[in-house]
Amino acid sequence: MMKRLPIIVFACVMAAIPFIPGMPPFWIVLLDNIGLSALVAMGLVLLTGVGGLTSFGQAAFCGFGAYTTAVLATAYGVSPWLTLPLSLLVSGIAAVVLGLVTVRLSGHYLPLGTIAWGIGLFYLFSKLEFLGRNDGISGIPPLSIGSLRMLDPGTIYFAIWIAVLISALLTVNLLDSRTGRAIRALRRGHIAAEAFGVQTPRAKLLVFIYAAVLAGLSGWFYAHFERAVNPTPFGAQAGIEYLFIAVVGGAGYVWGGVLGAAIVVVLKEVLQSYLPYLFHGEGQLETIVFGILLVVLLQLAPTGVWPWLMTRLPFRPGRKRPDTSLVLPARARAAAAPSVLLEIDNARKQFGGVIAVNDVSFDVQAREIVALIGPNGAGKSTTFNLITGVLASSGGTISVLGRNIDRAPPQEVAKLGIARTFQHVKLVPDMTVLENVAIGAHLRGQAGALSSMFRLDRADEAKLLAEAARQIERVGLADQIDALAGSLSLGQQRIVEIARALCVDPILLLLDEPAAGLRHLEKQQLATLLRQLRDGGMSVLLVEHDMGFVMDLADRIVVLDFGTKIAEGTPQAIKTNPEVIKAYLGAVA
Amino acid sequence: MNTTIMLFLVQDGITNGAIYALLGLALVLVFAVTRVILIPQGEFVTYGALTYATLSAGQVPGSARLAVAMGVVAFGLDMFAGRRSLHLRLVGRALAVDIILPSIIFALTLWLAGRQTPIAINIALSLLIVAAIGLFLYRIAFQPIAHTSVLVLLIASVGCHLALQGFGLVFFGAEGQRGPPLSDAAFTVGALRFSGQSIAVYAITAAFIVGLWLFFGFTLYGKALRATAVNRLGARLVGIRTTLSGQIAFLLASVIGAISGILIVPITTLYYDTGFLIGLKGFVAAIIGGLVSYPLTAVAALVVGIVEAFSSFYASNFKEVIVFFLILPVLVLRSLAAPAVEEEKD
């Protein structure tokens, strides 16, 4: 349990702090506030730093949590412990409603949307009669266990920090799992993740709800800690501050959220108490310093303090090698496979006036390597995107094992056993090779978010990692298994993509320029591997520009030019086909 | 409700909507050129308005000092950035733009304060001060991180908003201010009274919309600015100076913001933090316009203004709630029309 040791030490230190003799009570209040902010920041880490969804509206979710318990405890006399699940539920439901609208937005619309509804909700809190309008609600009962009433900051301290620790552990567990890998892949765009069966809208909604529930928990604590709520701490300013906390700490790191909360809360306190002495001015001098610090920080250390701190540690956290003796059951497949795997009949794709794929027909048989070649812009990658469901075709039919997949989304195509690589490598650079490859096995695991958080997914997870490790070994990258994908050469990254595709346990492998960036020897190894795969019963459809490689490897070649199929045949026939020579070398003058 | 009330509400809505349109245009402009989502746009509004009001009251606005201070920082950054190839022309240019220009503005402000200056001079001076702040803001906060993602730029933008709003409180105090109107002329059509001020609002907004649309759609320089937004590297390769494009965009945005402020400060009392909310309503319009289309943004801004006017009549308590939630149905529509193929990220 070496991995847990720092956390246990941290927990012991936090537990001991209130018992230090002469500890000023004011410091305990600060620590309480740090814990409250850390809860929200942790959610933001998952949402923004890991999932890539920036939200300025988290403070509003704190508001949902705080007001729920405030109303129930004051107007209806419900026990605070009973309002806890309700507070979390209300925050979660609010997140579902807002999330369904928000998470599908791309890029900058998302943060802007969150600003808008964040402010809208703030005004809603401050105008609703039953929430006490601008004055809010006071006289909220404290938390109590038996006769212990958590009235002073020193007792609620334990409740808050236990919640912080548990939340941090659950979040770390979640990230280190099948669902976690799907979440971590979100930031790099949805196409790669969807090609391996990840339901990206669902994954985004999941992190959105998760972050909102953590914010709701913080709000619930806040209400019973301050014993009064008003709209101010749930406004736009607070939402901005939470994001600031996450960015300062290191938006991609769970513990960065805690560290960021500590830095910001302490800094704010220091600024508020000392700045007026320095400048003897009225006004919010601390906001000025805050704003300037934020800009300076982004220019100097955009990744935050936590990763900066971690690289300065004298020791490295070790990684456990997956136990490759575990076997992941093969994907369920049709009992009697017909000989034609993939059939493309008059497929067509038009972008406005451009016909990228013009009524192309060809098929891929079982145990066959088919190469799709043609000059740049011939429509090869577009054909791949049509097959894998990334693009919807404008006409014609594409079927796999006799089943029409014209309207199937990428996840469904992946379920049929079609795996692909990308012309422009789509790996998650800050995940290890093992984790990247394990995304390929996404559909072969079952563990969901909840079981991952409580570590009930370990058996499932070990099998997935074992399969990933086996495929990495198969493609010859066993030495790089723990390296970050972004640190590999481009050629190696392409091979990692192949290993990831193999994790699907595919019947058909679509490779988009797999040999680009490889050295001669590596190309030979790749060709050997692809032949082995074919002989093992897999089919391969590849796009490639290296003619030596293609002619040597392919059983059959399909040639496209300007979106139209101009030839099909064995490598020998294609080499001498006058149409092909014309397309590649130009017409003889 | 009778027709008169409705006409009043529409008129009120259009006046406010015109201001939102101006701000929405500035936001679209800055985003299109620099990819910065300009949250401090609202501060340009308050700075313009309150600088104008302070000048009209015969005092020296603190924003003039801020312009000088930011100029000094910008000069430092310019020198640091060019430290390997410091030649006389570069130093001279930096000195002129960063030090001498704001100093002259500051000297003018000091000299004019307390004298009976005509409104036109006060307006010109306010615009100069805010324009300098806008220019230096880009140089200091955004130029060094111009290549980063929209998200990083957005967070930096939030930082600038916090700092500028804090400075606003220091310079202009917590009390609201009003400025003298541009003209006292007024005429009535039926039941509606049109003040010279509101006519000015309409005219200036319309002029800016048409001007920007022509500039970006039909001039080489406008197209160069747009090219910068799409691909910085590509723009540089074809000889567009991307830093200059950014500075121009910020200059225009700050001037537009300041003009909006000066236009409304005679009509409503402005506080140091009012701009944020006004700017955000401009945002709602800009988002509805998809951050790309000027005419659509202008139309959306009018809708926002009219919705606001009507909701303040029917449900004044929930005015802001309604305006900010107006964005949600638009976001739903946009998400339904989301593109299938993603852009390469990072």
Task: Please characterize this protein's 3D structure.
- The complex is a heterodimer of chains A (589) and B (346).
- By secondary structure, chain A is an alpha/beta fold.
- Chain A folds into three domains: 53-235, no CATH class; 338-417 and 507-589, 3-Layer(aba) Sandwich (Rossmann fold); 427-505, no CATH class.
- Chain A has helices at residues 5-16, 25-50, 58-75, 80-102, 109-127, 153-175, 178-186, 190-195, 200-226, 236-249, 254-279, 285-300, 305-310, 380-387, 410-415, 433-439, 449-453, 458-474, 490-502, 520-535, 547-553, 571-576, 578-585, and strands at 137-138, 144-145, 148-149, 228-229, 340-351, 354-365, 369-373, 395-400, 403-404, 418-420, 508-512, 539-543, 556-561, 564-569.
- In chain A, the strands form four sheets. Chain A has a six-stranded mixed sheet, sandwiched between helices. A four-stranded antiparallel sheet of chain A has the order 6-5-8-9, with helices on one face. A two-stranded antiparallel sheet of chain A has the order 1-4.
- Chain B is an all-alpha fold and 346 residues long.
- Chain B is 74% helix and 2% strand.
- In chain B, strands 1-2 form a two-stranded antiparallel ribbon.
- In chain B, β1 (186-189) and β2 (192-195) form a beta hairpin.
- At the A-B interface, α5, α10 and α12 of A face α6, α11, α13 and α14 of B.
